[in-house]
Specification:
- By secondary structure, this protein is an alpha+beta fold.
- The chain has a single domain, classed as Hotdog Thioesterase (Thiol Ester Dehydrase, Chain A, Roll), CATH 3.10.129.
- Helices cover about 15% and strands about 45% of the residues.
- It has a seven-stranded antiparallel beta sheet with strand order 1-4-5-7-8-9-6. Strands 2-3 form a two-stranded antiparallel sheet.
- The protein is globular and about 45 Å long.
- This is Thioesterase domain-containing protein.
Length: about 140
């Protein structure tokens, strides 16, 4: 696994993703079929109970799972989320770690799963997702 940029650079495993930078997601490592990120706790990311908001949790899962589907810093491929199912198991309190794995990758579709855990190891959320692989063409969009 290789370390990569910090959110201050706005680069996430070879891609510029302003929203991930805005919420403070930290890209930690990427390898074939694997990605790991972390989300430092911030009050402005919380709900009325002081836990990290479920929408924030789903956003960081979506990005980290898609990074595992790419499996490298190759920015010539994009991932479009087809489907994502998230189960929330405990409150997202404190700093969080997000780990994702690509279970199967075909020619145009990738299937992934991932977890969010608190610093004490408690499972916060688990997600599965299906992504369409988008190959960017030189000169295309």
């Amino acid at each position: 696994m290789t370390a990569t940029a910090t959110p201050a650079t706005g680069e996430y495993f070879g891609l510029a993703i302003p929203f991930m930078s805005f919420i403070g997601l930290v890209p930690e490592s990427i390898a074939p079929a694997y990605a790991r990120t972390s989300l430092p706790w911030r009050q402005d990311l919380t709900n009325s109970r002081g836990d990290v908001h479920g929408g924030t949790l789903m956003s960081v899962l979506d990005f980290t799972l898609s990074a595992a589907a790419r499996g490298s810093a190759d920015a010539t491929e994009g991932m479009a989320t087809i489907d994502m199912n998230t189960t929330f198991l405990s409150p997202g309190t404190g700093d969080l770690v997000i780990e994702a794995r690509c279970l199967r990758r075909g020619g145009s579709i990738a299937f992934c799963e991932g977890d969010i855990r608190r610093a004490d190891g408690e499972l916060v959320a688990r997600a599965t997702a299906t992504f369409k692989i988008i190959r960017r063409r030189p000169g295309g969009d």
